[in-house]
Amino acid sequence: MGNKQTTFTEEQLEAYQDCTFFTRKEILRLHARYRELAPHLVPLDYTNNPDIKVPMTLIVTMPELKENPFRERIVETFSEDGQGNLSFSDFIDMFSALCEASPRELKTIYAFKIYDFNRDNFICKEDLEKTLNKLTKGELTPEEVTLVCDKAIEEADLDGDNKLSFADFENMISKAPDFLRYRHLFCYVFIF
Amino acid sequence: MRRKTKLPGGVEEQTGRSWPRNVVAMMMRMKARMSLLRGREEEQPIRRKEAKPRTVMRRTVMWGKERRERREEGRKERRRKKKRRPRVRRTPLNSLTVVYAGFDSVCPFLPSSSDSNSNSSEEEESMSEGEMARLMEEVEEKKKLIANIRNKPWRMQRRLKLLKEAQEFVDKFEGALGKGKGRKWYAYKVMMTKKWIKFQRDFENFRTACIPWERKIKEVESHFGSSVASYFIFLRWMYGMNLVLFGFTFGLVVIPEVLMGLPYGSIPRKTVPRAEQDTAQDYSVLMDFNGYCKYSVLFYGYYNDQRTVGVLKFRLPLSYLMVGIGTFGYSLMLVIRTMAKNADVGGGDGEDSDFTFAWKMFTSWDYLIGNAETADNKYASITTSFKESIVDEQENQKDENIHLRRFLRVLANFLITCSLGGSGYLIYFVVKRSQEFATRDDLSWYEKNEMEIVMSLLGLVCPPLFETIAELEDYHPRIALKWQLGRIFALFLGNLYTFLFALFDEVNTKLEEEQSIKNASIWAMKEYYANYSRLMNDSEATPPPMDPADVIRGPCWETAVGIEFVKLTVSDIQVSYLTILIGDFARAVIVRFLNYCWCWDLEAGFPSYGEFDISGNVLGLVFNQGMIWMGAFYAPGLVGINVLRLLSSMYYQCWAVMATNVPHERVFKASKSNNFYMGLLLLVLFLSLLPVVYTIMTLPPSFDCGPFSGKDKMFDIIMETIDLDLPAFMGTLFSYAANPGLIIPAVLLMVLAIYYLNSVSEAYQNSNMELKKKMKMARDEEKNRRNNADTTNQVMKDLEDLLPNRSLIPPAPPEPEKPPEQEPKPKPTKTKPGTAGKGVNLQKDVALASSNPNARGPVSRPPGPRGPGPGPGAGPGRGRGRGPPPR
Question: Which part of the chain is the TMC domain (chain B) (predicted)?
Answer without folding.
Answer: 556-671
